[in-house]
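Colleagues,

For the teaching module next term, I've prepared a clean inverse folding example: a structure given as tokens, and then the sequence designed for it. I'd like students to try predicting residues themselves before seeing the answer, so please don't circulate the second half yet.
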């Protein structure tokens, strides 16, 4: 079984300091959180930028500052979000790809997202995928529903997306696929055999889905974007604390944790 890739989703676009006082917001705070997550065992950091007021932004300049600060501290794979917040335009969302990061997210479909709608038309899926291909950026295909796997495979057939694909199953978002074990098995059995995959369980789904991913040979995403608690009613102290728990579980279950360079090899990042 391949070594386990752990992604730390440090900030997200929805969480704020009112519910999680330890949330990193500034470029310096995000870079420090990335470094601490790396020391704990993460090989990828998934980044949502915030502006000076702490609001979600897809600004090229802000992502550039974060990227430079993260890379100065540690060798993790820097993975910006092209999902942004639901109100960002596709043009805004795509800006971080111009930084030519090693990876970036590619959302492959439209779904309800809480009380909002996360829009991803076929036109913009193709545009995002083509830009990543042109710039040599490895897409992480974000799947919120089973049909998004079909959308990704359509992008492959049309030449916008190369194989093998790396999927991220985001599970438990209100309005999209639920976070039950049966749902994870359904998604895993629906992707091409040469694919790699990560699971990001939202809220209380984070830990059980992470355990299953370790056992099934998949990979794991944790962090404040997805879950702000360590135990029920107990706020996590840091993103690194959530990473440390996955490292301990992997050790108990006999799965080694990948370094950033090992993760690059597993994901075919050139």
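(Answer key — instructors only)
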């Amino acid at each position: 079984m391949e070594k386990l890739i752990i992604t730390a989703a440090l900030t997200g676009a929805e969480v704020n300091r009112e519910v999680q006082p330890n949330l990193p917001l500034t470029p310096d705070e995000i870079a420090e959180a990335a470094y601490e997550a790396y020391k704990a065992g993460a090989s990828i950091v998934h980044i949502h930028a915030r502006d000076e007021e702490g609001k979600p932004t897809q600004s090229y300049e802000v992502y550039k500052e974060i990227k430079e600060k993260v890379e100065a501290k540690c060798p993790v794979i820097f993975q910006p979000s092209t999902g942004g917040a639901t109100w960002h335009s596709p043009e805004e969302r795509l800006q971080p790809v111009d930084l030519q990061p090693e990876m970036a997210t590619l959302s492959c479909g439209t779904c309800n997202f809480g009380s909002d709608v996360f829009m991803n038309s076929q036109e913009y899926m193709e545009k995002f995928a083509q830009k990543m291909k042109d710039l040599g950026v490895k897409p992480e295909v974000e799947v919120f529903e089973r049909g998004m796997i079909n959308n990704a495979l359509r992008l492959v057939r049309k030449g916008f997306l190369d194989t093998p694909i790396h999927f991220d199953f985001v599970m438990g978002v209100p309005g999209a696929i639920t976070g039950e074990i049966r749902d994870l098995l359904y998604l895993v059995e629906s992707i091409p055999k040469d694919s790699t995959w990560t699971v990001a369980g939202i809220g209380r789904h984070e830990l059980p889905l992470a355990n299953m991913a370790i056992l099934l040979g998949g990979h794991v995403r944790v962090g404040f974007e997805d879950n702000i608690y360590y135990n029920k009613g107990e706020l996590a102290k840091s993103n690194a604390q959530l990473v440390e728990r996955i490292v301990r579980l992997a050790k108990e279950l006999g799965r080694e944790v990948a370094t950033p360079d090992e993760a690059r090899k597993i994901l075919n990042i050139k």
